Amino acid sequence: MDAATPGLLTPDVLDRADIRAALAEHDFAAAFTLIKKWGGLSQNRIASACRLTPGKVSMIISGSQRVISFDVVCRIADGLRIPGSLLGLAPRPWEGEPNPAQHNQPDAAGDRPDADEIPWRPDATVDLATHLTRSDLVMDRRALTRALAGAAVTGAALLDSLEGWLVPAATVPGQRRPGRLGISEVEELETTAKAFRQWDHQYGGGLRRKAVLGQLADVSGALDDHQAPAVTDRLYRVMAQLAGTAATMAWGSGLHRRAQDYYRLALRAAHAGGDLVFGANVLAGMARQMLYRDRADDALQLIHLAQEGARDVIGPRARAMLHTREAWAYAAQGRIAGFQRATAKAAEDLAGADADGTEPYWIAHFDEAELAGVTGGATPRSRSR
To answer: Angle 183-203/229-252 helices, nearest 10 degrees?
Structure first.
């Protein structure tokens, strides 16, 4: 299917202001009603084209059911040949005639790499960010809670998907559109990401969640262009910060699986931007999530992954934080000696940390009181064999 293949709707139908307004608002009750009237399509024809049941289309038209799934929106766009721009989507694969020379390029439209491939490719990270933010921004809060409240991934399915953290990023040839962002614009984005993180710590996510996702979507769009290398690295670091904040906001809302999705995005973005210290912090957050879900073995593996990947660059304060997570995991396993050893290492590292501001701002909160609070509350317990 390409741009030369005729669609079910003629250009004059898609040019109607009322249809465009309904599509822009994702008001598919109105859009399907108008498409029936002006496009001459029956409910059965709409259902067949969009891979929906006639009953589902009937319920959408009556208003008793809303379209809240990103995948369904994409099926409607592709089935009815509605340009992505009318629905707030990226251009669909069938839009425009591709350059024949691009057919064998790895970043040609529709030929983007899988997110689980190793080594990780930065463009796959951008695609992951685009998918997550678009699907979340389409849904209202109650629909999001219903759809994404699944349990977090654990065990080998989780740990194997993170192995790319220890491997240098793949080179991506043939970037697409030229980008025009400068350092000053990136600095503004960095300030915004820092503010969102601080607000989350002070007040929780709440109404700010969509603002974070909107900013994350904008950064993803900027990274889909060919920016200067220095700008690209810093944009990936901004993406990592924003995705980390989105993860804690989702977790605070009870969306454990979605929190994990954003943690993974944050880890990949930190990896692409060369911010191994923040990547280690993301893994520590994932370990904390596992500890709250009584998955101490997974938590310990995540901490060791963080320690291995950032060993050569991490500062004493961040290293002490990782040791406290390690101690927490040992405590949950009932390993008293391991708990004591990790706690001692944390105290030693923290004693060697100075206050000269050489470590990232986001670890400044970790001090002796934090160490005592974490390790004091994580007393070892026996485990059944």
So the answer is: 10
Amino acid letter, residue 303: I
What is the DSSP-derived secondary structure letter of residue 64?
Answer: S
- Using CA atoms, how far apart are residues 336 and 327, in angstroms rounded to an integer? 9
**pTM across the whole model:** 0.70
Closest CA to 257 of 134, 139, 145: 145
Q: Is the pLDDT of residue 128 over 70?
A: yes
Helices 368-376 + 336-351 axis angle, to 10: 170
Residue type present at position 374? V
Token pair of 369 as six digits? 């009181």
Contact by Cβ (8 Å): 291, 329? yes
| Residue of 291, 204, 195 whose CA lies nearest to 241 | 195
Cα(164)–Cα(113) distance, integer angstroms: 14
pLDDT tens digits along 168-200 = 988 876 656 677 788 999 999 999 999 998 887
Report the interhelical angle of 183-203 vs 209-223 (nearest 10°): 160
